[in-house]
Amino acid sequence: MNKSWKLKKVGEVIKSFGSIAMLLFFTFIVFSPNESYAWSCGNSLEPKELYKRHDSVFIGKVMETLFENVGQLTPKSRVTFEVKSTIKGSSHDVVTVVTAVGSELLEGKEYLVYAYKTTKENYLYKYEEGELATDTVCGGTKELSNAKNDLQQIDELKESNKTINYFIITMTFLLVIILFIIIFKRSRWKKGLS
Predict the structure, then answer these.
(1) pLDDT higher for 40 or 101?
(2) What contacts 99, CB < 8 A, 6 or more positions away?
(3) Are 133 and 100 in contact (CB under 8 A)?
(4) Which residue from 48, 50, 65, 94 has the fewest beta carbons nearer than 10 Å?
(5) Is 51's pLDDT higher than 80?
(6) Is the pLDDT score of 5 beyond 80?
(7) In the prediction, which pLDDT does 39 show?
(8) What 3-state class would DSSP assign to 106?
(9) Do residues 67 and 95 touch, judged by C-beta distance below 8 A?
(10) What pLDDT is recorded for position 111?
(11) What is the pLDDT of residues 65-107, one digit of tens each?
(12) Alpha-carbon distances of 22 from 9, 27, 36, 95, 145, rounded to whole Å
């Protein structure tokens, strides 16, 4: 009797443990995280947002990559591009950009580059005023062969901005004409009273 009582207790413990394990398993499945934050980017990677957020956007061919020791584990890399087309920002034939760790831009390949001006708050490596920086992981820079969607969305954004600008110019022009007519009629009305 003592032996059967012990077996019964062991069976109850196994059932309880099994129930708890199943409950934890299903809880983990139901409430598991939807996104991993270990290597996720804080900002949107949508091309229209990338275009708005960056100071310079261009298509360029990598001419040269240089590395500079700045006293950290990884050297500072500078990539020099031959600019094929300027989409946003100042137009230059050659642009040198600092790249983030993990950004590999190969010589001879063409890229769509989203670059930003570094400041004391956002610089990479060692701050140098006026420097441009880019990132292939979270900054949007990619091989030109993979940038068709980006270029299409940027064109759509630029077209919608043109439409808005034309509307504002037209409305301003109409407002000026209406004000001119009002002023002209008031002056004629005042002359008629005298």
Answers:
(1) 101
(2) 77, 78, 79, 105, 124, 133, 134, 135, 136
(3) yes
(4) 94
(5) yes
(6) no
(7) 45
(8) coil
(9) no
(10) 94
(11) 888 776 766 677 889 999 999 999 888 899 989 887 777 888 9
(12) 20, 8, 24, 59, 48
Token readout for 63 is 């001419």
φ and ψ at residue 11, rounded to 5 degrees = -60, -40
Q: Which residue has the tokens 């007519």?
A: 181
pLDDT-derived band at 147, boundaries 50, 70, 90: confident
DSSP strand pairing (76-88 vs 56-68):
antiparallel
More confident position, 176 or 21 = 176
Could you tell me which residues are beta bridge partners of residue 112? 59, 142
- Looking at residue 2, its pLDDT comes to 63
CA distance 118 to 55: 10
What secondary structure does DSSP assign to 149-175, as a single string?
Answer: HHHHHHHHHHHHHHHHHHHHHHHHHHH
Q: Which of 75, 111, 74, 71 is nearest to 95 (CA)?
A: 111
Count Cβ neighbours within 10 Å for each residue of 137-153 and write b for 16 or more, e otherwise. Answer: ebbbbbebeebeebbeb
What does the DSSP assignment read for 55-104? SEEEEEEEEEEEEE--SSSS-EEEEEEEEEEEEES---SEEEEEE-TT--
What percent of the chain clears pLDDT 90, i.e. is strictly above it? 19
Radius of gyration of the chain (CA): 31
* Tokens 């956002």 found at: 122
